[in-house]
Structures are given as C-alpha cells and as structure tokens.
Amino acid sequence: MIKRLFDIVAALLGIIILSPLLLIIALLIAIDSRGGIFYKQSRVGKDMKEFYLFKFRTMFSDSDKKGLLTVGMRDSRITKIGYTLRKYKLDELPQLFNVLNGTMSIVGPRPEVPKYVAMYTADQKKVLSVKPGITDYASIEYANENAILAKAENPEELYIKEVMPAKLALNEKYIQEMGFATDLKIIFKTIGKIF
C-alpha cells in the first residue's frame, strides 16, 4: 500500500515538474523524424500479464521489425535526437504514465518482451511475482548494455546466455531485499548513474 501511494505521488510530481521537458522532447522528436512521438511495446508484467510499456520514440518508424535488441549507441535505426534521449535515459520518462495506470512501479524488475520471457526457467519466473519497475539493480549494473552487446559477434546470443540471466539474478536480489529503504537507495543510485 505504501509502495503504491509512493508510486502515485512520485509519478504525478515527476510528470508535473518535468512537463516543460516532456513537451520540448516531444517537439524535438516531431521535428527530427517522421512518426509518432511515443513508442509502445508489449512487455510482460506481474503474474505474466502483458501490458504496453511507453517510451519516447528514439528510432525510425518500424525499426523494431529488424530486431528487438539495440546494439551500441550507433545503431543506424536510432534517430539523431534518439541518441541523446537514450544516453541520458530520457526516453524512459513516459513510463511515469505506466506507473500512474498501475502497470508499473517506480522501482522493480525491468519488464521484458514476451519473446525472452518465454525462455525463463521456473526459478527465473519468480521475478514476475512483483510489479515491474522503471529502474532496479539491473538497470544500474547494465546501464551500458548497448555497448556490451555491440562488442559481441552474436549480440542476441550474448544477451540470452549471459546478460539476461545476470539481470534476472539481480532482479531476484531486489525481491529478497524489497522495501521502501531499498527503493530509495535504488532511486538515488539511478540518478547518480545518469549524471
């Protein structure tokens, strides 16, 4: 109950305080390339329920049809403004609306796409027992995930065999330590990592 109340207050304050920035980003995206301002993608949330995760669009339209993973910051599918938005994680800001509608929390395991969730073991599926979040231990540890994947001969294989299991282990750690103090620690660490 406290977590949900915190999520609502934090998301509302975030949207109000950041509204000028959100409008500027929306305008820059519209000027930079053709397509919608927002991008929505199906993700798997608590209790295996699928929902749409919102982001600012950082790629050219229909780029996700060429693959779900983004490899490096120089992926040709990323728009000019998209590079900056991704670098500072500004593309994630619309997820504050996901928090408001109750599909996400401020802190919790990052939600994965159905394709990769289908590969989870029974133990790994425990991460789906809690609401997914905008940030978590894995988001901090793998803030440079794109750069890691860019160095691999087969980025998807590296993601499935090494990165995804490591992130899920960090998700399990979060579930074990879950609490208001842990959430605050992760929020401050995330802010520190961005800047």
Radius of gyration: 16 Å
Strand content: 5-15%
What is the approximate shape?
globular
Structural class: mainly alpha
- Distance between the terminal alpha carbons, to the nearest Å? 31 Å
Number of continuous helical runs: 8
Give the biggest sheet. 2 strands, antiparallel
What are the segments in which pLDDT stays under 50 over at least 5 consecutive residues?
Answer: none
Q: What is the helix/strand order?
A: HEEHHEHEHHHH
What level of helicity do the residues show?
40-55%
Q: Summarize model confidence as the mean pLDDT.
A: 92
Total domains? 1
Biggest sheet, strands in spatial order?
1-2
Task: Describe what you observe in this structure.
The structure is a single chain. The chain is mostly helical. The protein has one domain. Helices cover 50% and strands 10% of the residues. It contains 8 helices and 4 strands; from the N terminus they run αββααβαβαααα. Strands 1-2 form a two-stranded antiparallel sheet. α1 packs antiparallel against α2. The chain is globular, with a radius of gyration of 16 Å. The chain starts with a helix and ends with a helix. The relative contact order is 0.14.
Question: Which tags fit this structure?
Answer:
50% helix; two-stranded parallel sheet; globular; 8 helices; mainly alpha; two-stranded antiparallel sheet; 195 residues
